Amino acid sequence: MDNRELEQTIIKTLDDNKFGSFGTIEAGNKPKVRYMAVFHDGLQIYLATNRKTHKVEELKDNPNAFLLLGYEQGGGKDVLEIEATVAVTKNEGLRSKVWNKELEKWFKGPEDPDYVILELQPTRIEYMGKDQQHGVWEGSAAVSGK
Fold it and tell me: What secondary structure letter does DSSP report for 111?
């Protein structure tokens, strides 16, 4: 699988998985993982959260995070392991872009001051397909195998 094919396969896997396990490092250098809804535009990945959550504080101290997608009920059987640096943003355009009715359970609307977006900038994505395909995307280069 060449780099372009790998990117398209990763994007399809993101399309097929609306939830993932998001990991950060909390105080004391201990890992903390929680399920979160996943939004994306190509390989740019977004998570919606409340600015008052522990994860926002954890990311201020250490912006490195991990997102695991796939092989769960309701999702595809392909797996993505995503290493990323994360920025917490209140960018109005991005908040409007990510906003959907499902978020009304937690926020008053896209203008809610507690509503922020975690913007993941992937540094490495490892893809493992249900049919033994494998590939590693790193920035603009990819390494793939069977």
Answer: T
Cα separations in angstroms, 2 against 9, 15, 84, 143: 11, 20, 22, 8
Query: Among the residues of the chain, which ranges form H helices?
Result: 3-16, 54-61, 92-98
105 DSSP 8-state letter: G
Please report, for the chain, how many H helices and E strands are present, in that order.
Answer: 3, 9
Rounded CA gap, 10 and 33, in Å?
22
- Domain formed by 3-139, architecture: Roll (2.30)
Q: What is the pLDDT of residue 146?
A: 47
Rounded Cα–Cα distance for residues 135 and 145 (Å):
6
Per-residue DSSP letter, 129: -
The per-residue pLDDT for 103 is 94
Cβ-Cβ contacts under 8 Å for 137 (sequence gap 6 or more): 3, 6, 7, 10, 43, 122, 124, 125, 126, 127
Q: Which residues of the chain have pLDDT under 50?
A: 141-142, 146
Q: Report whether 117 contacts 103 (CB < 8 A).
A: no
Please give the Cα distance from 95 to 67 (Å, whole number).
20
Question: Would you state the pLDDT for residue 141?
Answer: 47
